[in-house]
Amino acid sequence: MAIKDYVLKPRDIYLNRLIAFQDTEPVKVITGIRRCGKSSLLKLMRQYLLNSGVEEDQIISMNFESMEYRGMDEKRFYQYVKDRVLEDKRMYLFFDELQRLTHWEDAVNSFRVDFDCDIYITGSNAYLLSSEYSTYLSGRYVEIKMYPLSFCEFLDFHGYRTEEYKTPIGDYKKRAYDKDDRLIDMNDLFEAYMHYGGMPGIADIGLEQEKINILLDGIYSTVVVRDILEREQRRGQRQVTDVELLRKVVLFLADNVGNNTSLNSISNILVSEKMLENRVKQGKPATQTIAAYVRALKESYLFYDIKRYDVKGKDELKTLGKYYIVDTGLRHYLLGYRNMDTGHVIENIVFFELLRRGYDVAVGKVGNKEVDFIATKDEKKIYYQVTDEMIAESTRERELAPLMDIRDNYEKVIIARNTNSTGNIEGIKIRRLIDFLLE
């Protein structure tokens, strides 16, 4: 099938970022957890180029997950591309899952120097950028960070459309319709998103629990084997070798999303469960071991950490950061499908929504109180509190208190899944979660 014949769901937020850097010097690097849509984004970009008048023979595409390129070294990689480069024409080079090729950076740097080309690559491990790239390309790359589907994308991928309507009391809300134009409760759709998560592949198999479990198990297993265990072997450190210990760390972090967590607290619990007993006896500090495992999980994009920031003192705090899992469906797969920690799951969803929108995100400390998120972008700053419900007076007072203690003039917002009012309270905006996600 020709590239032109592919029919793909749009991921405009990412495609537009790629298009903005088209035909510029930096190598475009798309990063993110496996199966979040990076390969499809490359196809969308290729479609865009073809529709813009670029010819097919100007495009070279290689997916290093394919057996076709297994065992290829950097010299054969360079020669393969060189043999297909056309004289007097600009080439567009697409390399998928490039981290599977050792010393790939030598070849990519040579392409950039030797050919008139525009380069796009994907990778499922942050080590792709943390060492080799910084050395060989000296900042001549731009990173496009990709995540699983947003709630908006989830609705689109599963065939729902939304519209805004005015309620009898003058409020504005959103409603959804399925493919057959039947009205679907928006809260039910959000429950599905929270439960099953946003991995794009779910849209191909439907919202069936057994099939979704198989898909998520495959993603998790691939992340562990290829992006953690094999990656550690290739870089020669071999610090992450115990699959069962790795799973214990994963389960701990998944069960504690949104909680203040330290490496010491993780290691202390695992020592008490005798998971780290042998390593301690061998003289390897438990915290050092856990640090290596957590680093590997972050590099594979399964977990993201967030720092704490003193709002009044304007200093980063070195202790007790938080961790969030890249997809709530993976969290439920790992921990079991039961009703739990809805507030923290919602917080997890809002955190990644802010990342999608291009914000840098930190946790805020105001005296002995905490602000869930400080989101900054350029000169813009917004303080967010996130809560499951804001109906009870005690909850209202608790969520308002830290924001009221902040005396600057930046925007302050409370996002609530369930609330009996929106608008402003002493300058603090109250937003419904679904309205926020569907902006």
Short précis:
The chain is of the alpha/beta class and 439 residues long. The protein has helices at 12-20, 38-51, 74-82, 104-114, 127-136, 151-157, 186-196, 202-205, 209-234, 243-255, 263-272, 277-281, 286-299, 328-335, 342-356, 393-404, 433-437, and strands at 27-31, 59-63, 91-96, 117-123, 141-145, 161-166, 172-177, 183-184, 303-310, 315-325, 360-366, 369-377, 380-390, 411-419, 423-425, 428-432.
How are the SSEs ordered, and which strands pair?
Layout: H1 12-20, E1 27-31, H2 38-51, E2 59-63, H3 74-82, E3 91-96, H4 104-114, E4 117-123, H5 127-136, E5 141-145, H6 151-157, E6 161-166, E7 172-177, E8 183-184, H7 186-196, H8 202-205, H9 209-234, H10 243-255, H11 263-272, H12 277-281, H13 286-299, E9 303-310, E10 315-325, H14 328-335, H15 342-356, E11 360-366, E12 369-377, E13 380-390, H16 393-404, E14 411-419, E15 423-425, E16 428-432, H17 433-437
Parallel strand pairs: 1-4, 1-5, 2-3, 3-4, 9-11, 13-14, 14-16
Antiparallel strand pairs: 6-7, 7-8, 9-10, 11-12, 12-13, 15-16
Helix pairs in contact: 3-4, 7-14, 11-13
